[in-house]
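Predict fold of CCD82 protein; 372 aa.
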Amino acid sequence: GKRKRSSTSVLYDSDESEDSDILVRKVFAKRHCILDEDESSQEQQPDKTCHAENISTSRKQQVLAKLKELARQRASRASSSSGSSQASNAEVEEEPLSPLPLTSTEGSEADNDSMKDFIDDDEEEEDDDDNADDIRSKKQPQQKKIDQISNSQLLEYYVPHFTRCSHYEHFQRIVKAFLINAIDDTFLSSLYDGTRQKKYAQDMLTSLHYLDDRFIQPRLENLISRSRWKDRYKERVDCYPDVHIIMKNPQYTSCQACELNRYCKFDVLLSGRLYNSRTLEADDFMSHDKQVLRVGTVCADRTRVYHNLKHFKYKLYVNCSSIAELEGVEDEPVKDTVDRLFSQLEDRGWIRKRYDDLENYMNDADNFQEEK
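Predicted 3D structure, encoded as tokens:
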């Protein structure tokens, strides 16, 4: 920028005057000024370098001060004698201004002493480690058993529905709960609202949750997710506890379950009263209502598998209620009546038969082929 301005001034002067001396003097003056500026800048450079050297020196002094402080801290924590610690400090103080003392051989001794606080005694003796490994290997089977027991107890504590009893024991508890509710129709509702806190009641509630959450609901969701059923058809199957699937003459029409055009040769007849899924209390509203739907072969098979599993618990409760009414309630406590009815059902193999039906329904749901 300065050179550009100097050239313009020279041209301006040459236009006004024809004297070449003036022009030479002016150009010489301009050049001399430029040279002076360059020389002055060169003279200022040593000052800048001196300032940078001062900054680097001060930084080195700060680093040295930090290193001295670290050396003092390590020497104070070291377990060695006071004489050796003083020697290490003196060595660090005498070293030049450089970040290398951390890697020097003199400081390695202090580092080794300071690392004693973080090293176990077992790591220093290999023979002791081998012996300890042998002892641990002998104790591993016992320790695994203890860990398994403790883990199962933790699961029982933190997961309310987790128990170690078998599936059939869960089913037996459910049958007892249904027999009690057949005599006292407030039992199931008091279980779910938390009124009953005794151990036998909590065990029955756990088994009911186990039946719903582990046996039935996952399989129902799997059947629905792999189908093309419409929500309206699913809701109808969920609401009616009774179903009859009747074969008719095939007719090429829209299936009322998936709404796809195909040869439909089955009529699905849905009936029964709506009920509460927890208390199993039936609703008398439109108790005689029926639905007849024309579906295809695959949807008819899926309806049968889905309906059997969906309404199994309600059907089991209805059977338990019928047994309680037929056997009659004698003048005895409810507990004695339930125990007597349960023993009779167990001896006749009725409970085992109902449990086998549940397993068959679950197997049908697991083995059901995906719709093509």
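Confidence is low (pLDDT under 50) at residues 4-46, 79-126, 157-162.
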